[in-house]
């Protein structure tokens, strides 16, 4: 076996990595604002039904694209269920808890507590993907978490249910990101297949759950369905739900689960400070503002170190991998990852 056959596939270009990260940051920012408008400003009673609308949009858009040969992904068969598990469970958990926490919390506190996603992603990548991280990145994560704790400790609008939802959302987001990266590399489903079959598998159980809990009835009986502005915001939220999920998969495909979490932290800098002045549900205190600032500063430092280290490590890691491959090849063994 030749040395060329043992090499890893070439890394994606820097422009693809940066563009996918910027696309995710923009999509995440916009959907947070739109969801906040639908659930808080208009007081739409069912975050679960809003999630269902986003799933339906995902199915319709991707199926239409597949029929028109704009995109391609595997046709459904029984093997899909084994290939994609446990992503559908993580997907619906992420969707539902994210919408619930958006409704319960102010924008600044929502974005602060979302910082725990980075820590959880790092832990999962260590245990699931067997990655290691340098100390300065770990210290940056500690700064982010400490800032989040300081800010949350003085939250004058403390909501136990909201905090529970957001921490669950952090866990689901971290697990979903890590397993998405794993599935994209292992199963051959592709970006569009992961999105489509996630939504297809979970939409019926989610509909049943919404009907059983009464959420579906509340959504259908909502008084603002006749208002054009609400319908417009609702449809935008549904479409942005698809765009967000696509941007997450795209960012994970070209980068890593941890990079996706880092990009989310960068986006939260803008969302948190804008939320102080708009939205009407932020109760100001200096302790809270200090915690926000520590948290955001740690996020920026962490982001800089992550992207900077990625570029500086590439040459040395490439040489090390080539040395490992040559050694193993000379002994007639398979290539190491």
TrEMBL record:
Query: What Gene Ontology cellular-component terms does the record carry?
Result: membrane
Q: Where in the cell is it found?
A: Membrane
The alphabetized UniProt keywords are: Membrane, Transmembrane, Transmembrane helix
Q: Which parts of the sequence belong to the Sugar phosphate transporter domain?
A: 22-303
The record lists the membrane-crossing segments as 21-38, 44-68, 80-100, 112-129, 136-156, 162-180, 192-213, 225-246, 258-278, 284-305
Q: Per UniProt, what is the membrane topology?
A: Multi-pass membrane protein
Q: Where is the signal peptide?
A: none
- Stated name of the protein: UDP-N-acetylglucosamine/UDP-glucose/GDP-mannose transporter
